[in-house]
Fold:
Amino acid sequence: MIDHVLRLYPAAYRHAHGAEIAATFHELTAGEPLRVRLRDGADLAAHGLRLRFGLGPAGTLATVLGPAQPLVLGAAAAAGGLHLLRRYAGLVASPAPVGLQLRLELSGAWGVLLFSALLVFAGAAAALAGRWRAGVPCTVAGLLGYAVGAVVSGPALGSPVATPVAAVLAAAVLVACPPDRRAEGMAGGRAGVAGAMVALVLVPLAAVAAHVLPWVSTDYGCWPLLVLAGTGVALAWRGASGGGSGDGTGGGAGAGSGAGRQLAATALAAPPLLAEACGTAWGDATATACLAAVLMIGAAGVPLAARLGRTLR
Structure:
C-alpha cells in the first residue's frame, strides 16, 4: 500500500524522502490492525496531495485554509442538520404510517442522503470537539456520499448540480488544510464559535418547522447564510481588536491582511449553505435577491469589522 501512496508525492520529494517515509510507516504500523494502517496511509496520501498541489504549511493558501476549517465544519454540520430537520419534519407532518415512511426514506438515494447527512453532522461535531483524526475523515466521507446521493436523486433534492459541487468543495477544503494550520485555525475559541453558529442556524429553523413562529413560513435559505456572514464578521472583529488569534489578524497591516484571510475563509465555508439556499429558493427572484444582498453585506462587513476593531483598540 505504501508504494502506491508514495506515488502521490512530487517526484523530487519522493526521491529525497520516500525511503524514510516508507520505513517510518512500516515501523509505526507493524502489528497494527487494518483500520490503523488505512488511517495512517490516508494521512500520508493527503500529505502527498497537499505537497503536489503546492499546499504546504508555508503557502499563502494554507494561511486561509486554517481559519476556514472551523467555518467549513460548522457550515457542513448546519447543512447536514438542515437535511435531517427537513426529513424529521416531513415524517411528523405526513399522515402516512411511520414504518412506510421510514422504508421509503431509507431506500435508494434517499437512504444515502440521510445516512450521509448524519455522518456529516456527527463527524463535524466530533472534529469541532477536538477529535480530528475521527471527525475530519467522517465529515469528508459524509460530504462525498451526500454528493453522490444528490446526483442520483436528481432535482428531488433541489439542484442536482449546486448541491454535489458544494459538498465536494467543502470536502476539498477539509482535506487540503495542513494539520499544523488546522491547529492554528482552531485556536482562540474558533471551534466554539463554529459550534455556536450551527446552533444559531438550526434552533430558529427548528422553531419554524415546529410552527412555534407562525408568522414565518420559510427562511428561503437567507438565515443560515446570514449567520455565517455574521460569524465571519465577529471573528474578524475579535482578531483585529484583540491583537490577533494566531493567524496573523492582529496589529496594523497584519490586521488588514488577517481580515482579508477571514473574508476568504468565510467565502470558502459558504458553498454548503449556499447550495441549501439555492434548493430552497429555486425560481424565486425575491429570495434570490435577498441571498445576494446577504452575501454582499457579509463580504463588506468582514474588512469593515477589522477596520473598526483597529480603531477602537
Remarks:
- The radius of gyration is 21 Å.
